[in-house]
Design goal:
Elements: E1 3-6, H1 8-20, H2 22-40, E2 53-55, E3 61-64, E4 75-82, E5 87-95, H3 99-123
Length: 124
């Protein structure tokens, strides 16, 4: 069963985001709910296709604001679905202006998750 884990950078940005971009925040989280529900009912992670999903390096997924009401600022929620633990790590939240920085941060985060797992596999 897939579960969500909000990471510290995501939590920090999520506290500020709704004040300025309330509708965008709601739209990306509605899309997140759709994505998570698809996984929970058995959709294959690699074959999950929605117009709001953007595949990024290292297995990172960016969920955008598409489908929200009105003309919304481009917004991305970066997450990493870890198939082995079935945890969806909510990594960070950003916009077009912070996109490069957000992807770099997300890659570093995922690298930190994967490296310890690889070490455990070789230690055993």
């Amino acid at each position: 069963m897939w579960n969500l884990r909000a990471e510290s950078e995501y939590e920090k940005r999520a506290r500020k985001w709704p004040k300025k971009y309330h509708h965008e925040f709601i739209a990306v989280h509605d899309n997140l709910d759709t994505f998570v529900e698809a996984l929970r009912i058995g959709a294959n992670l690699e074959q999950t296709k929605f117009g709001f999903i953007h595949r990024e390096p290292c297995g990172i997924i960016a969920i955008d604001q598409k489908g929200g009401k009105g003309s919304l600022k481009e917004t991305r929620l970066y997450l990493y679905p870890d198939k082995s633990s079935q945890i969806i790590h909510l990594i960070t939240l950003g916009d077009k202006r912070t996109q490069s920085e957000d992807i770099r941060y997300a890659r570093e985060f995922v690298g930190g998750l994967i490296q310890p797992q690889n070490q455990q596999n070789t230690d055993g």
